[in-house]
Design brief:
Layout: E1 6-13, H1 18-21, H2 42-48, E2 55-58, H3 62-70, E3 77-79, H4 96-99, H5 103-110, H6 123-137, E4 146-153, H7 155-164, E5 181-189, E6 192-198
């Protein structure tokens, strides 16, 4: 085990894309952010610049890459495909209205961890790869007695991490809007990371 016992973890959801705007399922499909909407992240960028980060990690998908660059941390970001959103398979680009009468879709909504979208990813596969990321990146931090980490990633990933570290009671409680972020402070006790405080959401710049 490493010696690090405290981590401040900043979780930021990427800026909005056209599919997000249209409420289409967007997982592994590589859509860029709406560039004209990035100004909404200006206040978040200013807030993050008040902190120094020991590590910056980001999903390899374009919408996260563009967001981390806008926030000013593109040069130091380590790209990790394990931070991708769930793969929605054949439901990528579809809306709830288009899928709501599909029996398979209704079963998936009722049990997303065990069911999978057609040619997509199961919830168990999704959580397993994120646990693998945590094990590799968090459990062996040895350089300092504490660390500050920025993750630029996706909504589902943030929901999972908040529940995984017990900052929320369930996966569905950790809703973060596009271009928003949340800070959680983690302490490791007996080899397990748990949240001891959850900050206010860092709000993006409000606009018309």
């Amino acid at each position: 085990m490493g010696t690090c016992g405290n981590v401040d973890l900043f979780l930021v959801r990427h800026g909005i894309t056209d599919w997000n705007r249209d409420k289409r399922y967007l997982g592994h499909t590589d859509r860029g952010v709406l560039i004209h909407e990035l100004f909404r992240l200006y206040a978040l960028r200013k807030e993050l610049m008040n902190h120094s980060f020991d590590y910056v990690y980001t999903s390899d998908l374009m919408r996260c890459q563009e967001t981390v660059s806008y926030l000013g941390y593109g040069a130091m970001a380590c790209t990790d495909r394990r931070l991708r959103e769930l793969n929605f398979g054949e439901w990528e680009g579809k809306t709830y209205e288009e899928l709501k009468d599909n029996d398979h879709y209704r079963k998936w909504l009722a049990d997303w961890e065990n069911e999978s979208p057609p040619n997509g990813e199961s919830g168990r596969g999704f959580t397993a790869r994120l646990d693998d990321f945590i094990h590799e990146r968090f459990l062996h931090i040895t350089e300092k007695p504490s660390a500050r980490i920025l993750l630029v990633t996706h909504g589902g990933v943030i929901r999972f991490l908040l529940a995984r570290f017990k900052a929320t009671d369930t996966f569905w409680e950790g809703a973060i809007q596009h271009g928003q972020g949340v800070r959680i402070s983690l302490t490791r006790e007996e080899g397990e990371w748990t949240c001891n405080s959850l900050s206010e959401v860092l709000l993006p710049e409000k606009g018309i």
